[in-house]
Amino acid sequence: MDPLSSQTPISPLLEGLNPNQQEAVLATDGPVLLIAGAGSGKTRTLTHRIAYLIKEKGILPANILAVTFTNKAAGEMKKRVLNLMYGHEKAEAIMESIKGHGAGFYRTDLPVMGTFHSVCVQILRKYLHLLGIENQFAIYDETDCEILIKTIMKELGIPPEKTAPKAVLSHISGAKNVLLTPEQYQHQSHTYFSEKVAQLYPIYQKRLAQNHALDFDDILMKTVELFQKQPDVLAELQERFRYICVDEYQDTNHAQYILVRELAAKYRNLCVVGDDWQSIYSWRGATMQNLLDFKKDYADAKTIKLEQNYRSTSVILDASHAIIKKNHKRTDKTLWTERTAGEKIKIFEARDEKQEGELLVREIEHVIRSHETPSYSDFAFLYRTNAQSRILEETLMRHGIPYRVVGGVKFYARKEIKDVLSYLRLIQNPADNVSLLRIINIPARKIGPATLEKLHELSHSRNDMPLFSVIKEVEALLGNESALSDVKISTLKLFIKLLEKLTILNQQYPASGVIKHLIAESKYKEFLLDGTPEGEARFENVQELVSVASKYDALEPGISLATFLEEVALITDLDQVDDRTNAVTLMTLHSAKGLEFPYVFLCGLEEGIFPHSRSLFEPQQLEEERRLMYVGLTRAMERVYLSYAENRLLYGTVKSNAPSQFLEDIPEELIEREGSTLKKVLEQNDGILSMYQSGGLKRVPRESEFGFYPDAEPEYKEVSQEIGGFGLEESALDSGDRVQHKMYGEGVVVGLKGGIATIAFKNRAVGVKKLALSVAPLKKL
Fold first, then answer.
1. For the chain, how many structural domains are there in total?
2. Which of 379, 380, 505, 569 is geometrically suited to a Cys-Cys bond with 597, CB 3.0 to 4.6 A?
3. How confident is the model at residue 719 (pLDDT cuts 50, 70, 90)?
4. pTM of the model as a whole
5. Which candidate in 45, 47, 199, 278 is catalytic?
6. Active-site pick, 635, 639, 648, 769
7. Average pLDDT over residues 275-301
8. CATH code for the domain in which residue 651 is found
């Protein structure tokens, strides 16, 4: 039915909206599920709906609650609603006046708009004393929480080497996200580690309360607890927030779901907005099941789909749909656009990660030259892991193209990279006091401010002797002074001993070897791998630094490290381009959600990288990887570029993984290819190239990396069988089957198409391969 029927007064707030958006604005009462596809104008719809409630329905602003997930999104929501309500000039004045006032909880003339956490903090500031905790509580960050848990562990005699404090906090966070109390968690602990967490969790909560503090997860959990234990408070808030809007509902966790459900229980005027196709945060507790189950919770809910896309071309949308339709767990919708034209998706196949960077950067230069309007800020490089940014950054700097890294710091400015580089610089130059002070307590050596102050005093008294030399001769310099204890002197000696050993190793190994020894000898690997995903990512970055250093392995020891450090210094010196606004954007795919760019490059589309290796054995995780691919594609307005490499140096190892299965999902008519030749592929297959060159093959078949498609001439099949043995028929296998390969060992089938099996092998050195079933030496297990 047309939302603008003759019985409906025409409102200026409906002008410029499409019929579905108008329907969403007019659906003011009762539960509403708004399925908003990528680029479908959901923020515009949501803000017009809030303004319509106030200006046309006469709802008091204070009776409206709108929550989202980021401060940026909340700020944009406030700005747009205020513009619609008051006009630009007055809206700007109001925005200035509410700075620093959270979600506006105490303003009766404005809707409450903010993140889940900002709204809950305002509630707790007023009512938390009812749970026995001061209303003026402190909010502990990760560092505060880690100090607290380490203190408790020390008191209990739990060594951090066996039970990593950050891993403990990660598990406590996970428990709080699903509202598990310490007592409930204890009933679920059945392993050594979970039993330690169960021991620490209640004491940790007790100490937080004693310190009048909450951690980040407590902000949600304590609000839900307040609702459960203080029904009068819940009733008061239900009466106030008669109309509730929740943006990005697919990203809510269990605690947020319960919180919204309780607040909306009385009036049931709940509008949730989301897109399960863009649910990519399960690793931090989000569950898109909340969106999928909305109709189960509210059987009378009205469902409205926003399917008209205002961002991308039809080519981009068709490719995106081809990717996402393979997911079994999803809502059904079809995005469409009036922009029926559009350039094809361009796929680059590179020899390695260096050529990949060159191909992509030269494409930017080509587009810039051939168009008048594009600027550097029109381009974005998106990648699956942060470690992939290094080669892209180096290539952009080599070409003099400005860039900025979003959602993280630049590769050479990351803490773990700077730590390792400081060690290396100190090995190369013992007089480098800055590098020494950076790493003297990394990993922790309990060399505190008082000790450092004494070392500085000794340095100054000896004509600013380098701190390295001061530490090396500290006993002689102290004489009869007892300023430093024997334990402290012993610690300093061990530090010097480590550096001297690394200095000797520098004369025996090239740069990459020195870094590997450094990581091992200093226990830096154990320092980074603290049991959290963040620690794993940091260690991956350090492994990527090994990849960089290996470029200098042909040089003799000593000179190798010196040359490496010199070139790295030149790269960081050119890093000032990050301050420019007109710059290419680099970010992970997870960071890109909610953004848009005219030209988008998705890099590193290889099995084991994207999709990530962790997803290849888990169907649910693979579906999330596919949603991540969908998010990446739908960031693009004009054109998408996809790239993969035959060989990639990543985390210190050269991998030869198959192209991503996502590439095969995109219809060929939407694709334009550029890259390597058959000859380069044949060179990787012993015995085949010589036959090809001598005319032994009548026709060259299409190739896969470690096997050949079954449409080859008989002569070719015979050769293939000689080197590989007879294989299986496609009908004999299904995705998920376990197989055995004569050379590569055991693996799992993760994809089947055209007689080709994509197999993830258990041996990480092998990785993911594509094999022709007709010739590969495979046996089904």
1. 5
2. 380
3. very low
4. 0.70
5. 278
6. 635
7. 92
8. 3.40.50.300
